Amino acid sequence: MANDIQATTADAVSNDQVIDVLNDLLENTRDGEYGFRACAKEVDSAQLKPVFESRASQCASAASELVALIRQLGGKPDDGGTVSGAVHRGWVHVKGAVGANSPLSMLEECERGEDAALARYRKALKTDLPAEVRMLVQRQADGAQANHDQIKGLRDQFRSAKA
Predict the structure, then answer these.
(1) InterPro entries given for it (predicted)?
(2) Sign of CA pseudo-dihedral 112, 93, 62, 156
(3) In a domain, 6, yes or no
(4) CB contact at 8 A, 81 and 125
């Protein structure tokens, strides 16, 4: 089954390299899930809680897709997210604990997280991935871009309302 997806061109990356790229994105999606859940917990806005919870669920679904593909390729999915993601979530919790959990503040934190996610997807898409893998990565990158755009739009809306 792993051979069904493996690249066949001489320029293509190895199966192990593809798994590494997918594991990097898996950590990325878990960071997104955990980050959105942290913001949903800390934000002081009934309007934003469901948005953050929905984004967290979408990230969890993306992670599940990546886990399945990594296993299909014969790899072992990484556990958890990244250290930088954990630091980011810690900062969100600190902001919540000290009362800096305004909707605008939480949206700004989410936007920072989505900027990092987009950068990782762009990096992955620069890799010569097998077609089926590229399609999944591109679809998830499009989803990350939609998340970013929604969060940025909400941030701009809350910024305008505050001014």
Answers:
(1) CHP02284 (IPR011971), DUF2383 (IPR019052), Ferritin-like (IPR012347), Ferritin-like_SF (IPR009078), UCP029477 (IPR016920)
(2) negative
(3) no
(4) no
Which strand (E) or helix (H) includes residue 152?
helix 131-162
Overall pTM surpassing 0.70 (yes/no): yes
CATH code for the domain of 48: 1.20.1260.10
Among 159, 147, 163, 160, residue whose Cα is nearest residue 51? 147
Closest CA to 89 of 64, 59, 65, 69: 59
Q: What is the pLDDT of residues 143-156, one digit of tens each?
A: 999 989 999 999 99
DSSP H stretches of helix in the chain = 15-42, 48-72, 83-97, 103-125, 131-162
Contacts of 33 (CB under 8 A, 6+ apart): 56, 57, 59, 60, 63
- The answer to whether residue 3 is domain-embedded is no
